Amino acid sequence: MEITSEEIAQQIQKAKKGKQDAFKFLLDYYWNEVYGFQLKRVRNELEAEDITIEAFAKAFDKIETFDENYTFSTWLVAISKNIQIDKTRKKNASIYSNTTDATNEQVQKIIDHSPTPEDKLITEQNLSELLQYIKQLKPHYQEVINLRYFQEMSYNEISETLEEPLNNVKVRLLRARKLLAEIITQKE
Q1: Which CATH number fits the domain that encloses residue 126?
Q2: Tens digits of per-residue pLDDT, 78-114?
Q3: Looking at 72, 98, 124, which one is the last position of a domain?
């Protein structure tokens, strides 16, 4: 079945009104285009997947700013391209800052920045606080966050574990992250 530009425009309007089925439609319809674009750029499936999800999250958060005079796919690809450029710059800056011309004697004098027992305690308390926030989510959101961030499963592994389509997993994770961010922002 061919999807018309009018149908896409209707889905965008529904998404601007916050309709979840419209977001799912747009994600399903444009996923391969944005993911394929990123895969060609970064040549890494997981990185392309992460950038694509981040691009959809950013686009969906700012969907009310989308101008219908432009093509939605072009807008999505531009967002993903900007995210990828930012990530590459950060990665390159990190690599550059980690290289040194110091002699062995200078390296020996470098202060040890490994975490102290106090630092470890603070980290554990922050993790405990984060877990409390996660427990405020509905169980199916808790589950997908646990699988992705604590068990470090790929999206495909989560899809197989939950026996759900890959795009459903991506949408659920996107929604869970957004709800978690809202909970944390409200508490602070």
Answers
A1: 1.10.10.10
A2: 999 999 999 988 888 776 666 555 555 555 555 556 6
A3: 98
End-to-end CA distance of the chain: 48
Alpha-carbon distance of 73 to 80, in angstroms, equals: 11
Whether residue 51 is found in the same domain as residue 94: yes
Q: What is the pLDDT of residues 152-172, one digit of tens each?
A: 888 899 999 999 888 888 888
Question: Encoding tokens for residue 88?
Answer: 């590459």
User: Positive or negative CA dihedral for 14, 32, 171, 183?
Assistant: negative
CB neighbours of residue 77 within 10 Å = 18
The residue segments making up the domain with residue 152 are 114-187
| Contact between residue 134 and residue 180 where contact means Cβ atoms under 8 Å apart | yes
Same domain, 29 and 82: yes
**Any idea which residue has 């499963």 for tokens?**
153
What is the model's pTM? 0.56
Q: What is residue 34's three-state secondary structure?
A: helix
Q: Centre a 10 Å sphere on the Cβ of residue 177 and count the other Cβ atoms it contains.
A: 18
